[in-house]
Amino acid sequence: MGEFELIRRYFQRPPRRDDVVLGSGDDCALLAVPAGELLAVSTDTLVSGVHFFAEVDPRALGHKALAVNLSDLAAMGATARWASLALTLPVVDEAWVAAFAEGFLALADEHQVELIGGDMTRGPLSITVTIQGTVPQEGALRRSGASPGDDLYVSGALGGAALALQHLLGKRSLSAEILAPLRRALEWPQPRLALGEGLRGLASAALDLSDGLASDLRHLLAASGVGAEVALEQIPLPAPLGALPPEEAWALALAGGDDYELCFSAPPQQAAAIQALAARLACPVTLIGRITERAGELRWQHSGQPVAPHWQGWDHFKEAP
Fold it and tell me: PurM-like N-terminal domain spans which residues (predicted)?
């Protein structure tokens, strides 16, 4: 089956959103951006052997390829609208493409995202998604709004995906019962779009956690010109990490990456509203520390005592720690 027949059969659908004036099938898509809103755009590439195992379930891979992009929109408080997909395949495997499309489009439908075009070519297996959404002109959550005295939060639990990856790499041995939810966290992340939209007007700054809290939080601090104190005992961990020695658990939760949760700051007076939002969405949100004055200084503490920082998140162009 050729490129265009694959696209027509598995990815091309009639427009499902009123703001898609012209969808896939032409040289460009034509989109109507709502008045009074800004366009939010993000792109991520997933490469076989770097971001995923070649033998991963293609449905899970389709889901994750879109989910990691949706997580970026969530961090901005944006509403997801449109996506384009560039898929590079070493060979044409129709069953694989069908399953990948099923996972991708199921998540797209869940969040009312329209696939508006893209490209398909031959080469080493990789996936590039560009996601587009909109956010009110004065409502976008940015990395640059944190102030000294703000509370610091994370959503969900951290480190589960990293523990699953260690098992798959043969560095640990987990039972099937323990592995199942951790592997789901790794392969089927759930973007926090509703939380991001709900945090507009409550949070002062936000970003999503893809490379690990130890690395990603520094981006927020640098953009805002502030520091932070983080209480390690308050970091939310999935149960299997809680059973590990603290140093091992912290390394996975802070530097393992692949969490796709939100980290955000907010003035203390918003604490009740944030917890009410979390309860309404059934999305756990945990206070882990506070924003401080000294720009760029990230202090880790355990039971009030300082802990020497030695964790670093994922960086494609540095050797792993």
Answer: 25-135
